[in-house]
Amino acid sequence: MKKVIPSYIRVLVLFFIVFAAMEYFIDSGNRPAFIQYPMVSVFLLVFLFLLIAIEITLSAVNKITYLLLSPEEKEKLAQKEALGLNDENWFENLKQRFTASVPVEEEKQLLMDHDYDGIKELDNNLPPWWVYLFYACIVFSVIYLVRYEIMGAPDQEAELKAEMDQAKVEVAEYMKTAPDLMDEKTVTLLTDAESLSKGKEIFAANCAACHRADAGGQIGPNLTDDYWILGGGIKNIFHTITNGGRDGKGMIAWSKNGLKPKEIQAVSSYVISLSGSNPKDPKAPDGEVWVDKDAAKSTTIPAPKAVDSTQAK
């Protein structure tokens, strides 16, 4: 029996189609689905086994059917299988439908008067596939003209700009909830007891050696007063702990020495919570008095009360 596609090709194509579909539709995170979920691997193995079994069964049926054929039927089958693809009736019909070519025997009817050095020209019609493609281009151009030039739909440049703006918004929202991508621009002050307790543990393990356990200052400055060398507030403190202090005599960059952004946020918030705690024998102030400009802007001065002119005296 003649087969256009070999059996092993069919098995591989069907198997990888199912494999790709499962990888696409099954959410397995960063790992392949057949590794993340063992049952997927079991299913794929069973599916492959069934495909091979079906091909073996079909091959056996074809052999038995061939043996049951008469000598004349076997001869006809051999002649049919000897035909190439171009000799198949369905292929000839398909080619004729798309090309509308004239048989070589009838080309004399299409000869034109042009004759140049023995070279003659045939008056063939345009191939249907070319004509259909031309009509499709006309329809597409009309739709394009109406949609983009008349109705004002966004073009590729406008779509790109809109997608970039949306991407910026999504990145900003993601940064708010992605602790390991936090920086001094997106960090927020933590005030809950659990975060401050974690910050206290980090401070005791990494900061107390220079700032004392009560943050009163020793080698490093006092962290409980209003004086700051590189600025106070959650954003400035987060920046200083992350990137280090002044060159040559400041604190090391803790982001390069084991602390993650979320941990730096916690210890920064804990340091701010110690403001005004008045530890015993604090170190003399270093730096300048720092005032939160944002907080100062948001503070409103109450308007003076109106005075009755009859009671002013």
How would you portray this structure in words?
With 313 residues, the protein is mainly alpha-helical. It has 12 helices and 4 strands. It has helices spanning 7-25, 33-36, 38-67, 71-82, 89-99, 128-150, 156-177, 193-206, 208-211, 233-243, 261-273, 293-298, and strands spanning 111-116, 119-122, 227-228, 288-289. The strands form 2 sheets. It has a two-stranded antiparallel sheet. It has a two-stranded antiparallel ribbon with strand order 3-4. Strand 1 (111-116) and strand 2 (119-122) form a beta hairpin. The protein is elongated and about 115 Å long. Residues 306-313 have low confidence and may be disordered.
Looking at this protein, list some descriptive labels.
54% helix; 12 helices; disordered C terminus; two-stranded antiparallel ribbon; 313 residues
Dominant shape:
elongated
In helices, the fraction of residues equals: 40-55%
Subunit organisation of the chains: single chain
Q: Biggest sheet: strands side by side, in what order? A: 1-2
**Radius of gyration, CA atoms, in whole angstroms:** 41 Å
Secondary-structure element sequence?
Answer: HHHHHEEHHHHEHHEH
Low-confidence stretches: 306-313
Average of pLDDT? 84
Largest sheet: 2 strands, antiparallel
Give me the secondary-structure category: mainly alpha
* Strand element count: 4
Please state roughly what percent of the residues sit in beta strands, choosing from under 5%, 5-15%, 15-25%, 25-35%, 35-45% or over 45%. under 5%
Gap from first CA to last CA = 121 Å
Q: How many helices does DSSP assign? A: 12
